Structures are given as structure tokens and as C-alpha cells.
Amino acid sequence: MFEGFEAERVRVGDASIFVRHGGQGPPVVLLHGHPRTSATWHRVAPLLVQGGFTVVCPDLRGYGRSTGPAPTADHTGYSKRAVAGDVVEVMRSLGHTRFALAGHDRGGAVALRLALDHPDAVSRVALIDCLPISEHLSRITAEFATQWWHWFFFAQPDIPERVINADPDRWYHGDPLSMGQENHDEWRAATRDPDVVRAMLEDYRAGLTVDRRHEEEDRAAGRHVRCPALVLWSLRDDLEDLYGDPLRIWRRWAPDVRGHGIDSGHHVAEEAPRALASSLADFLTVRPE
């Protein structure tokens, strides 16, 4: 995986971020979702490098080979604001003060927070298979609670750690044929690590508490994404089934937004990498008017 890329660790305060980077050209950061690592981008990243971009793929704080602080009662150490700050510092350490950004699933929530908190750093943002967390929570239905029950299970204290770590291979399912063997092996090693599991759960605990509060404060203050935004969703996932056209919701947050569905299941970077890379490259390429 990631032939020609460099891998290193960047210390950011109380976190240590593992990052892969390679290529030449305008920088773009790819942020993975739960329970993946940066390896989920192993088919997309080389295509973007071929398209003329510098591509940076970090493991989110606590995921994969990145580490974070000990959890606290308020979950702020794993808030999207903290993780977004990691990304800004990692990019500065690599020499990039302004960059494009794409986030999938939980990485999409980080991408939104980064675009809101650091607007001068983000040139363009792509939001994949996600909505703002507060938008999900304000639309809770029986269907949502049934299909997304894990959000509320993960938020419980202590119990999910015991359940998941008792047999992580039964809890987390992945197919090495569809994921790619090396990606699968890296992901499997991460999900077998109790510290990683705890950090991933803290991500969800922060989502229902501090992250929700931050988003509600944004709405009350009238803050929105100032850069161009692209919204992509997997047609064989449930986002459109639950909410209809995702663009209708995202227009409340990003006035300059466009988007479309991709024929894929949820893990689009692994299942439809060429379609995803093509959509990202088209959006990220700034053409003269």
C-alpha cells in the first residue's frame, strides 16, 4: 500500500498522529471514518497523486497508530475540535498552511469542524456519507434509532469496552478481498487494541455531548462553511433513505455546496475508489474562469 508515500509521526500536544503523505501539487487531506484507519484510502490516494495532488492521510486521534490523551468525563480530548486541531498542526508540520479536505463518516464530522474553526486553512471541503451530528440527532426516528443504535450503545460508560474487547473479531467485520489484504490486516490489528477501541468509543461519546454543543453554538451564531463544499453519499447506504436529499440539509451549513450519489456501499473508498477519486479530483481542480 501507499507506494512512494512517506510515513511518520507528528507530536501534537497530548496526541501523537501517524500520517502518510506523498505526491506533488496542491495538498489535500483524506480523513477516514469508524472503525477504519488511514489505510482505507490506499486505492484512492495513489489516484489523486496521479492527478497532480499532494495527498496526506492521517490516522485520527486514537484510531489506528495515532494516540490521544486519557479519556475525561467531558470527552473534550476526543472532540472533533481537538481532532481538527491535530490535522491543522500536522499540515503545518508538513509545510501546508492552506489545504483541501475530504472526510468520510466520522472523518466528515472532523472535516466540518475544521472548516468552521479554521476557515483560513481550508480551501475546499468534501463531506462523504455524513451529516452534521446535530442534524442527525434533531431527526431521531424509530428507523434512525434502530439502524444507528450503535451511536447510543457506544456512548454508555464502560459497558461497550467490555463487550467489544471480549471478542473484537466477532464485533468488527471486514473482508480482506474487498478491503485489500494489507488494509484489512492494519484495520484488524487496530480493532484488537483495547486502547484504540476506547478512543473510538470516546469519539462517539464526544459526538453526543461536546460535539453536539459546538454545532448548536455554530447554528445559533450563524456560522457556516465559507469555502466551496462537495457532498457525496453512497447510494447503497442508508443516508438518502433516512433523510432524502442530503444536499437539502447541507445547504443550511454550506451555502456553496454541490454533490451527488456514488454507486457503492458505505466504505466507498474501498468499494468504488475510481468513482470517488474522479469526483474528488474534479472538485479539487480549480479551473480558470
Can you tell me about this structure?
- With 289 residues, the chain is of the alpha/beta class.
- The chain has helices at 45-50, 80-93, 106-117, 133-138, 142-147, 150-154, 159-166, 168-171, 176-179, 181-191, 194-221, 239-243, 246-250, 268-271, 273-284; strands spanning 6-12, 15-22, 27-31, 54-58, 99-104, 122-128, 229-234, 257-262.
- It has an eight-stranded mixed β-sheet with strand order 1-2-4-3-5-6-7-8, sandwiched between helices.
- Helix 2 (80-93) packs across helix 3 (106-117) and helix 7 (159-166) crosses helix 11.
- The longest helix has 28 residues, at 194-221.
- The relative contact order is 0.16.
- The model has no long low-confidence stretch (mean pLDDT 96).
In short:
This protein has about 290 residues and is of the alpha/beta class.
Strand-helix topology:
Blueprint: E1 6-12, E2 15-22, E3 27-31, H1 45-50, E4 54-58, H2 80-93, E5 99-104, H3 106-117, E6 122-128, H4 133-138, H5 142-147, H6 150-154, H7 159-166, H8 168-171, H9 176-179, H10 181-191, H11 194-221, E7 229-234, H12 239-243, H13 246-250, E8 257-262, H14 268-271, H15 273-284
Parallel strand pairs: 3-4, 3-5, 5-6, 6-7, 7-8
Antiparallel strand pairs: 1-2, 2-4
Q: What share of the residues does DSSP label as strand, in percent?
A: 15-25%
Instruction: Write down the overall geometry.
Output: globular
Mean model confidence by pLDDT: 96
Unreliable runs, pLDDT <50, ≥5 residues?
none
Q: Could you give the order of the helices and strands?
A: EEEHEHEHEHHHHHHHHEHHEHH
Helix content: 40-55%
Largest sheet composition? 8 strands, mixed
Pairing-aware structural class of the strands and helices? alpha/beta
Instruction: Please tally the β strands and state the result.
Output: 8
Number of helices: 15
Radius of gyration: 17 Å
Biggest sheet strand line-up: 1-2-4-3-5-6-7-8
